[in-house]
């Protein structure tokens, strides 16, 4: 055994001393101010699990209660009622959901269960993951990501989002989660046991007509978080899935992990990423690249006069934050329509309000994006469209054609004769990149339409999708 013998006793003493010191330090130095985000959830998790596992000191009961109460409070504070994590960063959404899942299971097994409200909020968080995920398991890389994860499995190409849905399928008896997860992964088996694998398999059985009638349709609008899902043929080989962002910049005063991406959108078809969010790449190193990847020019939205929508104040701070809001959302069998605006450029000497209308026409399989800039004077407008590195993009009459596998996307701006600029891997200034993990990036095609407007003006972009 690990702690047998003289050497084992010494190890046990050092082990317990380390646990005590960690709990004592965390309890006295909680991130209650600018970093009261996922950091605070992690600290409460450490206190809760540490004190519950090793109740060896007079302070242990207090540490356990502090961790449990803090987790329950932050689960509701940091995650909107619709399930969207307020940091507006999909990877941190997953991290917080993972921490709540682990603590919920740990507390339940040790007689310290989390509240029903906490479990309900976790289920809503998994519903958001379910809504974002395309038929191939891809999610847009909105906001920051730090590559951290709860790694209890070593399967190649493990998808942490699908793993969460697999666990959630059993815990909440959700056949829709099970279908999206696809399989019961090793991490879920470690957490829930072998019996849960049988329950998961039962959820994958075809539903009876009566069951189908009682199943709720997947949510496609998340008004508190500010995300809307447009498209058709969801979760089929001919799926088109568009994710539009009308949410705030981020959480708390500094919005540490948010990006200047108001009104941006991503698009996948047949499970192939077409228009993407390019990710994060760096935090503390290479400030030029940090600013690029979280700046407006790196997202599928508009930039005015060469400026970001929000004004950065450092690697994890924004001094001026664009505020976005949804004006209209409607989904019918014929089309989905979203209208939203942001006020980030009202700070200019001649204020500019950016309003975007996105219409997905289902029969035609095309997207119309109308960008209206309400202003009085002249401004330089840039409309950027970032493609996956898997896409081949060529300029053609009326715009550009992108090809990815069996999918083609024609993108054009019929109101102008100007040809877009096609950039792939430029460095001065950066343009045309994607990053899936820290310190790794690769070149990817980016189209930019540039024009000067005078007074209120509308630019229309047409996206036509063909799946062979």
Query: Helical amount among residues, as a percent range?
Result: 25-40%
Number of helices: 11
- Report how far the terminal alpha carbons are from each other: 61 Å
Mean pLDDT: 95
Q: Please describe the biggest sheet, giving its number of strands, its sense, and whether it closes into a barrel.
A: 8 strands, antiparallel
CATH fold label of the largest domain: Beta-galactosidase, Chain A, domain 5
Give the strand order, joined by hyphens, for the main sheet: 9-10-11-12-23-16-15-14
The CATH class name of the largest domain reads Mainly Beta
- Quickly count the domains: 2
Structural class: alpha+beta
In CATH, the architecture of the largest domain is: Distorted Sandwich
Shape: globular
The count of strands amounts to: 23
Describe the secondary-structure layout.
Elements: H1 5-28, H2 38-53, H3 60-77, H4 90-109, H5 116-132, H6 160-172, H7 175-181, H8 186-192, H9 194-203, H10 209-214, E1 221-222, E2 227-232, E3 240-245, E4 265-269, E5 272-275, H11 287-293, E6 302-304, E7 311-314, E8 317-320, E9 324-331, E10 335-342, E11 353-361, E12 366-374, E13 378-386, E14 392-396, E15 399-404, E16 407-412, E17 421-424, E18 426-427, E19 430-431, E20 433-437, E21 440-443, E22 445-454, E23 457-467
Helix pairs in contact: 1-2, 2-3, 2-4, 3-5, 4-5, 5-6, 6-7, 6-8, 8-9
């Amino acid at each position: 055994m690990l702690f047998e013998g003289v050497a084992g006793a010494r190890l046990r003493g050092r082990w317990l001393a380390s646990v005590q010191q960690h709990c004592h330090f965390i309890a006295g130095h909680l991130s209650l101010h600018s970093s009261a985000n996922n950091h605070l959830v992690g600290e409460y998790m450490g206190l809760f699990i540490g004190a519950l596992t090793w109740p060896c000191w007079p302070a242990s009961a207090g540490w356990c209660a502090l961790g449990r109460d803090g987790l329950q409070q932050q689960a509701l504070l940091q995650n909107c009622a619709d399930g969207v994590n307020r940091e507006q960063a999909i990877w941190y959404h997953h991290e917080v959901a993972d921490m709540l899942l682990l603590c919920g299971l740990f507390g339940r097994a040790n007689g310290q269960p989390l509240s029903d409200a906490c479990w309900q909020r976790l289920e809503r968080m998994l519903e958001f993951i379910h809504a974002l995920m395309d038929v191939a398991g891809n999610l847009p890389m909105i906001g920051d990501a730090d590559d951290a994860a709860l790694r209890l499995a070593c399967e190649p190409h493990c998808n942490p989002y699908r793993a969460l849905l697999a666990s959630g399928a059993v815990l909440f008896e959700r056949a829709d989660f099970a279908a999206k997860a696809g399989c019961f992964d090793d991490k879920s088996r470690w957490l829930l046991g072998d019996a849960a694998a049988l329950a998961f398999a039962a959820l994958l059985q075809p539903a009876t007509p009566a069951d189908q009638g009682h199943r709720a349709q997947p949510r496609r609008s998340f008004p508190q978080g500010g995300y809307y899902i447009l498209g058709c043929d969801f979760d089929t080989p001919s799926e088109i899935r568009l994710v539009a962002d009308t949410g705030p910049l981020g959480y708390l005063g500094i919005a540490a992990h948010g990006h200047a991406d108001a009104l941006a959108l991503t698009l996948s078809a047949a499970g192939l990423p077409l228009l993407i969010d390019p990710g994060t790449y760096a935090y503390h190193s290479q400030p030029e690249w940090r600013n690029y990847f979280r700046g407006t020019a790196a997202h599928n939205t508009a930039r005015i006069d060469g400026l970001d929508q929000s004004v950065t104040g450092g690697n994890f701070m924004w001094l001026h934050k664009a505020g976005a809001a949804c004006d209209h959302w409607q989904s019918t069998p014929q089309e989905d329509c979203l209208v939203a605006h942001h006020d980030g450029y009202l700070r200019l000497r001649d204020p500019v309000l950016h309003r975007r209308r996105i219409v997905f026409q289902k029969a035609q399989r095309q997207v119309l994006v109308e960008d209206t800039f309400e202003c009085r004077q002249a401004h330089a407008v840039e409309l950027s469209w970032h493609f996956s590195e898997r896409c081949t993009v060529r300029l053609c009459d009326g715009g550009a054609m992108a090809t990815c596998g069996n999918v083609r996307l024609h993108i054009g701006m019929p109101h102008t004769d100007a040809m877009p600029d096609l950039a792939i891997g430029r460095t001065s200034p950066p343009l045309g990149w994607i990053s899936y993990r820290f310190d790794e990036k690769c070149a990817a095609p980016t189209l930019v339409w540039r024009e000067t407007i005078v007074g209120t003006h509308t630019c229309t972009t047409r996206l036509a999708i063909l799946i062979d």
